[in-house]
Amino acid sequence: MRKDEISSYIVDLALKKGATDAVTKIHDRQHIMIRFSNNEVTVSKFYDELTVDIFLMIKRRRAATTVPFYSARRLERTIEKLIKIARMTPPSELYAPLPEGPFSYDPRLLKGPKISLSPDRLVGYVEEAINAALKEGAKKVAGTLNVAVEKTVLTTSGNVHASQERGTLDISVRAFTSDISSGHSVSISGSEDEFNSSEAGRIAGEIAVAASNPKSGESGRFTALLGPLIFADLISQVGILSSAFLVDIGQSFLVDKVGTQVACEKLSLTDDPTIADSYGARAFDDEGFPTRRNVIIEKGVLKGYLHNSITAKKYDVETTGNAGLISPHPWNLVVESGEKSFDELLAEIDRGIYVTNDWYLRYQNYRRGDFSTIPRDGIFLIRDGFIESSVRELRISDNMLRILKNIRDLSRTRRWIKWWEVNVPTLTPYAVIEDLNFTKSTM
């Protein structure tokens, strides 16, 4: 069976076996991962994968899976198992058929720029990052480079058959001056022209050097200057929890908040997969519906949730083009920039803490938005508009809605962020947060 026949074959088979609706998404993906540590490449792996996402409905009963492609016979057995699972699954509250195509898609999004998988070229990106960090004064540099090219073919029982070709590059760089002094930065892009591994290395090295000889920090409430890495983590939570599915099950602090002020007026947030050549660019969602720019927050007001066809029917709105195979989700988050430079934001803080990064963001209560996270890499005490010293051993323990309303300012400069703490590509500025609560870390 040819690759371009697989998705149609599966949908047709699912309908013959009893499904009322079916979606198949084929991922034909080549991926190179390079790890580096102690200033040199340590691991390089090449993956050539052909995987199949299958989603089917028997009216209000649903089932889904992802499997590697081996043969038509295995796919047939997989469909038979999914049909059995769907028949045994408790019915959902309501049923909505898949959007009926065919649809027109933005041609700019259907085929991204060509990205090279040449090992020499990719190792060159790694060496640029390492050398830039060492030039800033770092002693050791480590991280991961991931480069992928992928063709996605989507077929649905709603008369959709579409394909998209795209590539992605992302590098995560950590630089060290000691075991307790480090800096972290990333570069991500859907185009080699916009990818800058050297800049990621330079920023990581600069932070690591500034973070040398940290002292134990003090707990309390401070004006906080948050770098793009940590602010992207917070903002991506807003985007993810604006999913109507998560709102519907009560696993979101945005329940019943549409039309209300949930953030400072300076915060505007959109999900925009229509930005050509960006890391999160998408022409269509997992139901085949064309993607679009969706406003989540406008000048602090929550404008709406992200929908697929089922949640849209429940809320009596149109799908927003954010369908995943199970629940809607954001593709490519964008925070509107502010008007000040980093130095201007810093100069206006009399007593505060500059946090460059975080990890392990965990909720104590999703509905209220209570959470904690651990600042990592460079953390700095601010006095009278200047960085006074490096600190460590702090935790942020606060409430997401309170933080959003306490945003004082945002920077002009923005950076695209994605790494293992930030799953959704997010274009974010620096942010100043009033009265952020810091506690002593147990780590």
Task: Please explain how this structure is put together.
This protein has 443 residues and is of the alpha+beta class. The protein has helices at 3-16, 72-88, 107-110, 119-136, 197-210, 228-240, 244-248, 309-315, 342-347, 400-405; strands at residues 21-37, 40-58, 61-68, 140-156, 160-178, 181-189, 215-216, 220-226, 269-271, 294-298, 301-302, 333-335, 351-365, 370-383, 386-392, 394-399, 407-419, 422-440. The strands form two sheets. Strands 3-2-1-4-5-6 form a six-stranded antiparallel β-sheet. The protein is globular. The mean pLDDT is 96.
The assigned structural class equals alpha+beta
Q: How many individual helices?
A: 10
Number of DSSP strand runs? 18
Task: Please list the strands of the largest sheet in the order they lie side by side.
Answer: 3-2-1-4-5-6
What's the rounded overall pLDDT mean? 96
State the major sheet: 6 strands, antiparallel
Shape field? globular
Quick structural summary:
It contains 10 helices and 18 strands. With 443 residues, it is of the alpha+beta class.
